[in-house]
Design goal:
The complex is a heterodimer of chains A (214) and B (268).
Chain A lengths: L2 H13 L7 H4 L1 H14 L8 E4 L5 H9 L5 E5 L3 H12 L7 E4 L12 E6 L8 H14 E11 L6 E5 L3 E5 L5 H11 L2 E4 L12 E6 L1
Parallel strand pairs in A: 1-2, 1-4, 2-3, 4-5
Antiparallel strand pairs in A: 5-9, 6-7, 8-9
Helix pairs in contact in A: 3-4
Chain B lengths: L12 H12 L6 E4 L5 H14 L7 E2 L14 E4 L6 E4 L9 H18 L14 E3 L2 E5 L2 E8 L17 E6 L8 E2 L3 E3 L5 E3 H5 L6 E5 L4 E7 L7 E5 L2 E3 L9 H16 L1
Parallel strand pairs in B: 2-3
Antiparallel strand pairs in B: 1-12, 3-4, 4-6, 5-15, 6-14, 7-13, 8-12, 8-14, 9-13, 10-11, 10-13
The chains are: A alpha/beta (214), B alpha+beta (268).
Chain lengths: 214, 268
């Protein structure tokens, strides 16, 4: 991304009181391109419906909304300032396609009234408790189409540690997200878990990558 | 904005965003001056202690160079340029037990800065090897040219991408007054629009004022001069330093033990 664009995105974050300069801007293209490339390799095409969990200010949205057919992008986010910021970022990228984004703290994905072919959770499981990961799968089981795929990134920490997001939101990162943990979920929800699916590039930040097929 | 000083340094949400826009937004100045951050009795105290009373060898070790100087439990250091009269005191919060007032003031400034950067205050006040920790620094510049060459920190041109951090801000606590205690360029800062500002003169900075400025903007001190009867350019800075495993002075036995412990951790 050219510097001018990057600093414009930083300005928008400040104007919407959404965040100070961070890795978001520095890794904008690396992450967006990796996400797009990975979902395409998993079989996503423009006709599919995508749920972007923890969609932020539509960083990946700028890629996915452009690529998908009108209205096929659905984003959920917990940080409220991102809702308006997302709209302004799309304007900045001159993207005018329809999309849906909402602020959600309670996994209310059924309210979209849609069934999804793909879901993505980039650096989201990294901020969830073990109970929340379980809840996430519970609700995805209801909203994903049969054979629908969730692509997600995570870190297998040895112990939980906390994050004080923007000095506003206390969060606890989970630990011991090992094979046994995901195999238990696999059994509970009758899904198919796969760590490091074949053909995907390494994640730009070095996080572990996995898929769950519903 | 209400008066912010070393006793009252918590910003409310509106103030935080006002400050952030002034510092980070491309239309902002890139800096913010907190006038009267310290009362006169505190600036007098600091100048008196550091410039007049202290005999550094009694409390500080000679600075061994940045690499491996800072580690958990490390002492305070000093640097003394015999020809220029430059004095630099590196005062880790855990090492500076002899001048607690400086510690208290430093903590208030580090806290104020963390609110602006949106980073947890406790993240960089205790030393963890491999990470950064703020080591407050008191500097007395008496005479010199090209005192601080024009440069930026944590910007996009950092050779190591790990060091890029566009949210970083630095704070300068001014403890002496230009054209009274020293003369010369003073602190020269490049604003977000690229214009240079000679801070002390253009902003009317007085002892006790705190300047918070964007770390990745170019900054410099081209020249300073002071007479025998002047105290010089005295200020405090709060750089986050890399913390090592005391590897600079570690013995071969300790190093081997450390490597074995690391290998064991990996294997287990």
């Amino acid at each position: 991304m050219d510097k001018k664009k990057m600093f414009k995105i930083i300005d928008l974050h400040l104007e919407e009181e959404a965040g100070v300069p961070s890795n978001r801007e520095l890794m904008w293209e690396d992450l967006g391109e990796w996400q797009m490339d990975s979902l395409k390799k998993m079989g996503m095409d423009s006709k599919h419906k995508l749920l972007d969990i923890g969609c932020g200010p539509l960083r990946f949205g700028t890629y996915a909304i452009s690529y998908l057919d009108e209205g096929n992008y659905f984003g959920v986010e917990v940080w409220e300032p991102y809702l308006k910021l997302g709209r302004r970022i799309l304007e900045e990228f001159e993207i005018s396609k329809n999309y849906t984004m909402k602020i959600d703290r309670g996994f209310d994905y059924e309210s979209f009234g849609e069934k999804f072919d793909f879901a993505i959770a980039q650096s989201v499981v990294t901020h969830m408790s073990v109970r929340q990961i379980d809840e996430l799968l519970d609700v995805l089981k209801k909203v994903m189409k049969p054979d629908g795929i969730l692509l997600f990134t995570f870190i297998n920490n040895r112990f939980p540690y906390s994050v004080y997001y923007e000095m506003e939101e206390p969060m606890i990162t989970p630990c011991k997200l090992d094979n046994a943990f995901f195999q238990a979920l696999e059994k509970k929800y009758q899904v198919e878990y796969r760590k490091y699916p074949e053909g995907l590039e390494r994640h730009p930040t070095g996080q572990a990558v996995a898929t769950i097929k519903f | 904005m209400k008066s912010i000083n070393h006793r009252n340094f918590c910003l409310n949400k509106k103030e935080v965003w006002d400050v952030r826009r002034k510092i980070y937004h491309s239309q902002g100045e890139g800096f913010l001056l907190f006038k009267g951050f310290l009362e006169k009795k505190f600036t007098d105290h600091l100048v008196n202690y550091w410039c007049r009373l202290l005999d550094p060898p009694q409390t500080h070790l000679l600075f061994p160079g940045k690499e491996h100087a800072f580690y958990p439990g490390c002492p305070c250091y000093y640097k003394h340029g015999r020809t220029t009269g430059l004095k630099v005191f590196y005062n880790p919060l855990w090492g500076n037990q002899h001048e607690v007032v400086s510690n208290e003031i430093a903590v208030s400034i580090i806290h104020l800065r963390s609110q602006i950067e949106g980073k947890a205050f406790t993240r960089e006040i205790s030393p963890r090897p491999g990470q950064r920790c703020v080591v407050p620094r008191l500097i007395i510049t008496r005479n010199g040219e090209n005192v601080l060459a024009p440069h930026s920190d944590y910007g996009l041109d950092e050779p190591n991408p790990r060091n890029i951090d566009l949210a970083r801000v630095q704070a300068t606590l001014f403890l002496s007054q230009i054209d009274k205690d020293y003369s010369g360029s003073g602190f020269v800062f490049t604003k977000n629009n690229g214009d240079k500002i000679h801070c002390e003169r253009e902003l009317g900075i007085e002892p006790g004022d705190l300047l918070i400025w964007r770390y990745n903007n170019v900054h410099e001190i081209s020249d300073i001069s002071s007479r025998e009867d002047q105290v010089g350019f005295v200020r405090m800075l709060f750089p986050p330093e890399e913390i090592s495993h005391k590897a600079g002075s570690i013995s071969i036995i300790e190093k081997t033990k450390y490597l074995l412990r690391s290998m064991k951790r990996k294997l287990v």
